[in-house]
Amino acid sequence: MTAKLSVNVNAIAMLRNRRDLPWPSVRELGRIALAAGAYGLTVHPRPDERHVRFSDLPVLRALIDDEYPSAEFNIEGYPSEEFLALCEKNQPEQVTLVPDDPAQATSDHGWDVLANMAFLKTVVSRLKAAGMRVSLFADGDSSREQMEAAKATGADRVEFYTGPYGGCYDDPDKARQWAETLGRTAGYAREFGLGVNAGHDLTIENLPLLIKHIPDLAEVSIGHALTADALQYGMAETVRRYRRACGEAV
After folding, report:
1. What are the backbone dihedrals phi and psi of residue 74, each rounded to the nearest 5 degrees, phi first?
2. How far apart are CA 240 and CA 248, in angstroms?
3. Could you tell me which residues come within 8 angstroms of residue 166 by beta carbon, excluding any fewer than 6 positions away?
4. What is the DSSP code string of 137-190?
5. pTM of the entire predicted model
6. What does the pLDDT look like over 86-121, one tens digit per residue?
7. DSSP assignment string, 71-120
8. For residue 231, which phi and psi values (nearest 5 degrees)?
9. C-beta atoms surrounding 98 within 10 Å
10. 82 has catalytic annotation
11. Which residues pair with 196 in a beta bridge?
12. What angle do CA 44, 48, 54 make, to 5 degrees?
């Protein structure tokens, strides 16, 4: 039971953007994360560039290509024409489609795939034709019908929005209930041949229970808690700690 760790560098970029200065360096901290064994890097370039900037994408693409060619680049966001063009230009191994409004502070819900089937089919087809794996952001309590619809779009994976699960950090009973719900939804995804990723408010403490209920969890994308821990432990040690929480022998 091991999930691969992708480090979301948006929080690092947000800290950098508080000043008109080049530090902390998204590239250098991304390099440290990959050197410590992270499977990949995740970015969510929003239209206003308040977190990662569009100019960061080719820098991170080059870092992976030149120094860590076995790692993966995951770009997530709402599939506007501008976003799709960014993906086609920077060629991530995976694109995670998120139903964000540009004004949202952070992602907070998954797709209603049934209601957006025609749109998502077109987008997924375009990205897959360019050689990218596609994952759809999905609610952790999605129905079997939603998972069937996700498969029908041509997507390869779903990424469960784990915000409600992460929000139970002070309520173990509720956390267990959410873990069971996520495990059941993962069963629906598995039934239709979809891989399962997860992301949002995942921590050292709550990863083991999640992986216990989704033993075939493919990937977790973690930014906020990991960046907070890196302030205390350093990026390299934090990545190793999260890899252990993901079930790796580090």
Report:
1. -120, 120
2. 9
3. 200, 201, 202, 203, 206
4. EEETT--HHHHHHHHHTT-SEEEEE-HHHHTTTT-HHHHHHHHHHHHHHHHHHH
5. 0.96
6. 999 999 999 999 998 766 667 778 999 999 999 999
7. SEEEEEE---HHHHHHHHHH--SEEEE----TT-SS------TGGGHHHH
8. -65, -30
9. 24
10. no
11. 158
12. 55
Residue 148 annotated to the active site:
no
Domains and CATH numbers, the chain: 4-245 (3.20.20.70)
Evaluate whether 134 touches 125 at the Cβ level (below 8 Å): no
SS3 of 27, please?
helix
Task: Please tell me which residue in 159, 200, 213, 219 is annotated as part of the active site.
Answer: 200
How far is it, in rounded angstroms, from Cα 155 to Cα 96?
Answer: 10
Q: Catalytic annotation on 76? A: yes
Backbone phi, then psi, for 9, in 5-degree steps? -100, 10
Measured distance CA(145)–CA(139) in Å, rounded = 13
Q: Give me the catalytic one of 44, 51, 72, 219.
A: 44
Element housing 40 (H / E) = strand 40-43
Q: Which of 72, 76, 159, 219 is catalytic?
A: 76
Region 170-183: mean pLDDT is 98
| The predicted structure's pLDDT at residue 21 | 93
H or E segment to which residue 136 belongs: strand 133-139
Q: Say how many C-beta atoms besides its own lie within 10 A of residue 186's C-beta.
A: 24
Question: Distance (Å, rounded) from C-alpha 99 to C-alpha 52?
Answer: 18
